[in-house]
Amino acid sequence: MLALHGAGAPIFTDDTMTTRSKGPSAGLGWLTNGITVGFRHPKPLLGGAAFMVVACLLPSLFTLPMQFHATRTMTPMNPATFGWAMAFAMLVGLLIVPLYAGYLQLVDAAERGLPARALDIFNPYRQGEALRLIGYGLAILVAYLVVIGIIVAATGGGIASWYMELLTAQATHQPPPALPQGFGIAVALFIVLGLFMMGFYAISLGQVALRRRSVFGAIGDGAVGALKNLLPLIVFAGCLFLCWIVMAIAFALLALVLALLGALIGPWLVFVLMIPLYIAMMLTVFAVMFGMMYYLWRDVCGDDTVTGLAQTTAA
Question: Can you give the residue range of the structural domain that contains 41?
Fold first, then answer.
């Protein structure tokens, strides 16, 4: 069943969903469509990305001063303080999950030619869907922690203590501790997990945000859809890695040019030019990231045949 939601973006309420498997070239399509979606709809998507950046930086206002104090005094952060800081960051992260869903709905509306505004990312809060989406975020967080715990336990459990020792060494400016036994195997497992989670999260978030699937139904669709599309996910990850390298080189060259201009004119010029460039890069990254997630979901679970129907209904 098709229903209108928010700014006119179509929302599907059918619980009998199927996931499709795509060929390897689909991974390249997800990347290219994600890159171009922001150029096709710059006003709503970059505006929505600006709200997203502000929301995602809010936890840093609480945790960064504590980290700065620990570094300046060369004393390790109190474990209780560290725990409270992490709990606060996770709480804010859960409150941001409805904004992720709202941004995905914004991309969907823009791509379907329906009315789309930057403020539409707050629609899940306005329309009473925030609790369901926060529940989804909590379920995803628990799943992440369980899988990470299994990997850490399977590799000997020394990684957790090594990580805490590493944080202490960084705070006190000491040499980093030696890598624990089983570190290489854990890294390989985390890479495989990250590859799977890219598809899992994009599909499950799309299902819960755009199809109005139940939390566990969306999670099931995400797991099945990611398993069915491991090959295009590998292609997607490889292409994405190459794009990050190209972008890092371009950013480094740009920073070098600005540094030379700063040496000739003054350091203030670097500061004045780098800040807007950095902000523009962050906004672009958000738009591209959610564009890729949207096209990944649409290839695996979406139904393009309803586009014309959705536009007719909205009119």
Answer: 2-314
Look at residue 12 and give its three-state secondary structure: strand
Using one digit for the tens of pLDDT, what is the confidence trace for 183-229? Answer: 778 788 888 888 888 999 999 999 999 998 899 999 999 999 999 99
Tokens of 162: 């090594």
The number of residues in the chain equals 315
List own/partner pairs for 36-42 with CB under 8 A and 24 or more apart.
Answer: 36/291, 37/107, 37/110, 37/111, 37/287, 37/288, 37/291, 37/294, 37/295, 38/284, 38/287, 38/288, 38/291, 40/110, 40/111, 41/107, 41/110, 41/111, 41/116
Token pair belonging to 41: 């709809």
* Pair 225, 296: CB distance under 8 Å: no
Residue 175, Cβ neighbours under 10 Å: how many?
A: 6
Phi, psi angle pair for 181, to nearest 5°: -65, 140
* Regions of the chain where pLDDT drops below 70: 1-17, 63, 65-82, 156-157, 167, 170-173, 303-315
Collapsing DSSP to helix, strand or coil, 2 comes out as strand
Contact 34, 292 (CB under 8 A): yes
Note the Cα 100 to chain centre separation in Å.
Answer: 8
| Listed residue (201, 174, 184, 208) closest to 74, CA to CA | 174
How far apart CA 93 and CA 102 sit, in angstroms, is 15
Tell me phi and psi for residue 21, to 5 degrees: -100, 140
Instruction: Give the number of domains in the chain.
Output: 1
User: How far apart (Å, rounded) are the C-alpha atoms in residues 42 and 103?
Assistant: 13
